[in-house]
Amino acid sequence: MNPSDKHQVIRELLDEIIDGNLTEDIRQKLAAQLTNNPDGLAFYAEYIEMHMALQSRADQNIEFVFRRMNEEFIVRPTDKRPQAEPVLVVADSATDSGKKKSASRKLAIWVVAAVVFVASLIFWSLNQRDSASLAIILSGELLVLDSGHIDNSAIAAGEYQAQKDTILKLYNGSTMHLTADSVIRTFNHKEILLERGAMFVDAQTDTHLLVHTPAFAIQNYGDGFSIDLRESRPIVNSGTQSTLIPKIWRPKHFWSFDGKGSQVIDSAGSAHGIASSSAKRTQGLLGSGAFAFDNTFHARINVGNGGGQMPASGSFAVHQGISVEALISPRYLGILGDEDVIFRKDQTDGELRIHFALQYDEGKTYLKPDGEFGPSLAFGLFILGQGYEELKLPLDGKNGRPTFEAFNQGGTHHVVATYSVQSGLKAIYINGEQLASYQYPPGAQALSGGSGLAHIGHTPNKLSWENQAFNGVIDEVAFYNFALPPEAINQHFNQIQKHFNYFGYAPSPEPLPKRLKISLQKKTSIELEATTGLPVKTLKQ
Amino acid sequence: MKWRIISFLRLVGTIKGSVLQSELADTDTASLFLNLFEQDKHRLYAFIYAFVLDYPSADDIFQEVSMTLWREFEKYRPNSNFSKWANVIAFNRVLTFRQANKKYALGVTDDIVTELQAHFTSAMPQNTEDKPSKWLHLKHCVELLPQPLSSIYQDFYVQQHKAQEIANRTGRTIYSVRKAIHKLRKRLFDCVKNKENEDGA
């Protein structure tokens, strides 16, 4: 017997109701079924909840708008929702006449509402004018580019270009220096966008300032700080209380393994996985949970294909770069021919596969750089103009690399594989240190995605299930569609040492937040990546 | 039409009432609200529909409740159960709706309202962390559908075609299309519950 068979009558009544056929007779029958029937009520609630989860009606009902220019966050109804099914229930014949009787009253309400609406708009626009000035030009010259206004050196919200070095006094007390040709957009007395150029702000006690740029924002309190966008990589000189808010930081997928059951929750996307029988939940390397893999046939977690239907499609498709990150505690045997997969997307993807694994093989013709490496950590990816190639990080104890024995002593290792299209650099990191790399021509495009499945802890290719299972524990697996820069990887490693997840939050299967705030070291010069806004390296302290 | 007036008035109210300064701390508040709301919105809509059994009414109540949740969000205690808090606001709105429309006999009968509310309250986990990701299996179950049901799923739930439209396009009777949709829902529900049972959830 299936679970719903027990409640067949309730299900059939609900199907009728959902179809739009609710009648008084059905209401009464439903009431009779649900009265003093806790199981029936539970079924009733769950059946409706499943239908609504499938229908996504809530998505079409409400929208969220953040109007930065007007400083508004608005929750409002949307008109995009589909036409409603005709299911209004009429209990008696008085309904229609009742509706007609109230028609004139509705018209009156419409008129009153329109008057209130117009009055509100007038009141709102007058208010806007009263509080229009945001800063004063102390020296220099600004050119109005878009919707700005300058009145006796006082500037309103809008876009401006500095014609020469210019100093502004914001109404929150901050003094801002703009270099010639810098372009800013002012929103209010403590929030601006630096579109290009450079600026620095004098120290000013008890003042908050939020400066947006195309790739990041800096929130600053008190001390002076500066932002320079004139080079290919932006440079920030922090104050004593400066916070970096990068534009791009969130992984496409993040499996913290802190949940329960065979379902493996993706806290960043919707690639929820299913663990096979030999992938067992165990004590977390970080947080409450991880998965132990026993090097056998069924030691794998299937995380799907990310919705990919053809090459370069789906959530595992990468275009600008890629990062695969994990915590591992391996018991790799290191025998010739043995492989322990950390993450692999393959099958019908063919050459466009993604492969991050411990390997020991010989005679491969698609290694870059070429060579024979013994037991290694390997990262394979398809790059346009190059084909599918693997980078090896040999576990040989040389040049800062760990020995095979040290790597397998039961400790936890933070491992990251990256490729950046912009720089052309492919790299593998262990515990925050870049220990293997290969330089492709900058701009060489990476390709991945498609209908092939991705697995954690094993290959998705059934023919290789005999010898490619992971042996050990894997935790906190993250997949990004961009290359994490070196300083960001180092910060992730540092967060783990403090028992936080990569992003500085307490380990949890809950969804990752939409925005990340990184506290910058005091009085430090930091180089950032121009596309993500993530830190590349610390220049000086 | 009746509810379009209320929607209009709400829009006016939104302009006046839902303004939030975009300083960082407050934007965080908006972000937190969005996170919690996004996770809970399908359940919340279902909660409302379970009482009113009518899409236009559920749409209007859901919109109004969504905006009320945002306006009242400062009263929400972080780390407490957002769903429980949202249910209280939604249930009050449902009662107001039923009172205002009692002559139309909308939704479930009065004696069931109390039982249903008691069920929702008792079924709610104590805090957000305990909340099971109830429909996680649904995606997998959709992938397991046989071709005819998969096709109905695509038409009805993904493309959001009405049963009549599917019938017109496929040459089937609306009765047979609806029957297929009923079968689809039953198949998915049973699949999800079976997988939950396998998990020991």
Your description of this structure?
The complex is a heterodimer of chains A (541) and B (201). In chain A, 17% of the residues lie in helices and 35% in strands. Chain A has seven helices and 37 strands. Chain A has a ten-stranded antiparallel sheet. In chain A, strands 19, 20, 23, 25, 26, 27, 28, 32 and 33 form a nine-stranded antiparallel sheet that branches. In chain A, helix 1 runs antiparallel to helix 2. Mean pLDDT of chain A is 86; it is low at 80-102 and 123-131. Classes of the chains: A alpha+beta (541), B mainly alpha (201).
Brief summary of the model shown:
The complex is a heterodimer of chains A (541) and B (201). Chain A has 541 residues and is α+β, with helices and mostly antiparallel strands.
Please give the largest β-sheet of chain B. none
Helix fraction of chain B, binned, reads: over 70%
Please write the string of helix (H) and strand (E) elements of chain B.
HHHHHHHHH
Number of strands of chain A: 37
Biggest interface found:
A-B, 94 and 96 residues
Largest pleated sheet of chain A: 10 strands, antiparallel
- What does the overall shape of chain B look like? globular
Bin the strand percentage of chain B. Answer: under 5%
Give me the count of strands of chain B: 0
